[in-house]
Amino acid sequence: MITTALTELLRIRVPVVQGGMQWVGKPPLVAAVSNAGGLGILTALTQPSPDTLRIAIRETKAATDKPFGVNITLLPTINPPDYEGYARAAVEEGVRIFETAGNNPGQLIKFFKSQGCIVLHKCTTIRHAKSAERMGVDVISIDGFECAGYPGEEDISGLVLLARSAQELNIPYIASGGFADGTRFMCTVESPIHHNIKETIVASTEQDTIHIFRTLNNTARVFKNAVSKQVVALERRPGGAQFADLRDLVSGVRGEVVYESGDPDYGIWSAGIAIGLIKDIPTCEVLLRRIEGQAEEIIEGMRKQIKPMAKL
Fold this sequence. Notes:
Blueprint: H1 5-10, H2 27-35, E1 40-43, H3 50-63, E2 68-74, H4 83-92, E3 97-102, H5 106-114, E4 118-123, H6 126-135, E5 139-143, H7 158-168, E6 173-176, H8 183-186, H9 195-203, E7 209-212, E8 220-223, H10 226-236, H11 243-246, H12 252-261, H13 284-304
């Protein structure tokens, strides 16, 4: 058993967090991760309203007595969701662990801390991590360029960001983006997406993702398919593209249909380059036991490599 500042703070057995994922972070997956010893996280905005989030929280509580959290991500959007409503609903339902991400999270963080909650903030730069630390968050989830979804605009790898985090941060931090802690959980038995998408992930390599929205300064790493390649082609045409030119192609509704229908080419869906590391579709219990066991073997193996220096 590996004990860290994270396991002690969150009261979990394994220092693994299943990050929030749109259309994926639903009660069956979240409960399975928490029951397996990690921290499962519900994605608030997967639910159409704060009231349906309440229902999802109750369903998760019925399926696990272990800690779990709720993710609220603030991103540029034409019609902003009721972020405050989602936050209040979750707190009123007894959730005390939150993952925040995105633009200007200050008000959300302030509210959660006023309610005695633990806040994990996901970010892609050291300056944003330090800013979140000053706001009072408890844990940073540092996302490298390899991650699925939004890696920021500075293209800094997780390897460097983690080393810089060790230099700059005074609170615990989680390695995310390229470590198969997001995309990996999409490809589990309990993941609520279509089995054909899981099989597509298993058959893919690290070369099967692509960046869209680069020219709009809102970069997103997604699965490389017919739609995402068309988006990139439109962005690269003379004169570029505006979001209005891409809106129908990148519709979130189409992305949701991908997970429901099993057609990997129907719309845009997030995937990190760690997709190349995924070779099976285990239960969350098997996956967490495997991660834990492999970590213990590596730690023990490194300990054995330390030899006393021979006396001259």
